Structures are given as C-alpha cells and as structure tokens.
Protein 1
Amino acid sequence: MVKPHYGYAKTESAVKRKLREYKKEVAKGNFETQDSYMLFQDYCLDWLNSVYKNKVIVTTFSERMRTYNRYILNQPIGKVTLNNLTQKMIQKHINSIAEVSVNVAKIVLFLIKSSLCYAYQADKKIICLFKM
C-alpha cells in the first residue's frame, strides 16, 4: 500500500501538473511500498492465512502450512526482504529441496510462485518471476 502523497502549489493547474507527474512516477514503479521491506517468510505466512486458507480444504491447508514451516520459515530464502528476493535465490532453494524430494520442491515452488504473483497482482511493487 502506497502512503498518501500530499502536494502543494500556488495554482490549481500547478497542483494538477504535480499530480500527473506523481502518477507517472508511481506507474514507472519508482516508489516502493511498505510491503517491499517485509520478509518473504512473513509475507508468505500472511498470504497463506488470508488468501490461500479460504480456497482449499482444511487438510490441504495444514499440509501447506507444514511445508511452509519446514522449507520457508527460518530458511535463508524466508529471511530475505521481498524487494531483494531474486530468481537465482529461489532457484537455489528449490534445487536444494529437489535433491531430497522433487514432489516437495514442486509444492514449495507453488507456495513461492503463488504468493509472489499475488503480491504483484495486489500492486505491491514486487516483480512476478513466473508466468501464470
């Protein structure tokens, strides 16, 4: 969510000009949101509880929470802020999990992909690294 922006000028036309310039900057993505500095593990947990929980049955949700607790919470990828998370970090994390279990790696990738794409769609200035 972008903080309110206040602009002042001597004339109404100057205020409108400043507003247009501000909207252009926002459209370019030059303003970061508060959520950009949120840790990925915190954002993912928030997404699980507020969005994903309402779309699946209880057993599926509890399985995904177990996966989150084991493979995202307190892991190196979970401790990265959203604005610093890169595709390379995600791939490295998925590769390390895939060495143990490909199926678990697919589930972790689903959690990462879905939460990041939701952040992007919710206008949180996060780059969606995946095609939906």
Protein 2
Amino acid sequence: MNAADAPCKSAGVNTEITNCMFNAWKTADAELNRVYAQSRQRLEGEDLQRLIVAQRLWIQFRDANCDAAYGLYGVAALGQWCARPV
C-alpha cells in the first residue's frame, strides 16, 4: 500500500481507500484466476494433479489463516480475501 506504484496511493478518505482496495483485489483475483485456468489447460497428468492439489491446500491454508485472524482480532481482521461470512 505504501509502494510508489501502489494502486491506492492517492486514495484519501477511508471510503475511497476501501473502494480502491476492493477494486484492486478484484483485478488481482481475476488475473490469478486467468493464469490458473491457463496453467490447467497447459498441464496434464501428474503435473496437472500437483497443481490441483497445491491449489486445494492453499485454499485450506487461506481459510485456516482467516479463522485464526478472526479468533485473534475479530471481524476487522478478515478483509476481502477471507471466505468467512461476516
């Protein structure tokens, strides 16, 4: 967020920052999904299975990390990237 090329560097008030960060997250998520789908199309056999297993394990890690953050810090810690309903 403080990097020179950060997408929300010029956002001022909290509402602008929240909207900007949400839009930046949506853009990054779309790019991640595009690259993941492209990778799945290019891989086959064991390589494809390893990618799928790694993705599923990453989702488990993300959810466990969100649960831990929620337990420690409450709703404010969840952010847009946590799958846990608020």
